[in-house]
Amino acid sequence: MTVDTIALSREELAEFGAALRQRKEQVYALLADEKYRRMLQPAEIYEGAALYLQRTGKALRPVYLLWCAGATGGAEREMLGLLPAAAVETYHTWGLVHDDIIDMDEIRRGGPTVHKLFEARALAEKGYSAEDAARFGVAMAILAGDALMAIAT
Predict the structure, then answer these.
(1) Looking at the predicted structure, is the pLDDT value of residue 40 above 80?
(2) Which residue of 11, 43, 125, 144 is most buried, as measured by CB atoms within 10 A?
(3) pLDDT band at 146 (very low <50, low <70, confident <90, very high)
(4) Taking the mean position of all CA atoms in its chain, how far away is CA 10?
(5) Alpha carbon distance 97, 88 (integer Å)
(6) Against a cut of 0.85, is the pTM above it?
(7) Residues with Cβ < 8 Å from 68, sequence gap 6 or more?
(8) Could you give the CA distance from residue 144 to residue 146 in angstroms, rounded to a whole number?
């Protein structure tokens, strides 16, 4: 069996990149809608849940979903896939929140992880001990991740 490689010209590669960015922006614009903020209450849970979504990732999963929807019925069908694409990105993101807790990572997408954000806030604003602040950070991150999973499904 042979695998052929696909060679793209600079123009084709630029067009592909632009199409990828456009669809990524559509997905993240939907996720930034006020109705999702209202679904994730209290405000601290929204902040933790939205943290990674606001920093945006590569968004390959939702973009592939949009392209697959478009391949089965054109641009109209692709736009029908926008809500499921946003759900895919949200579902993936809750896994990142929980993975960061398991791995005890401190940085994700160029900023503090959700549990580290809440830990720092507990130390600075609530006067918690270091141990209690760490537990608080983990607990709040678990809730934020669970909230993401809930709205994704």
Answers:
(1) no
(2) 144
(3) very high
(4) 30
(5) 15
(6) no
(7) 81
(8) 5
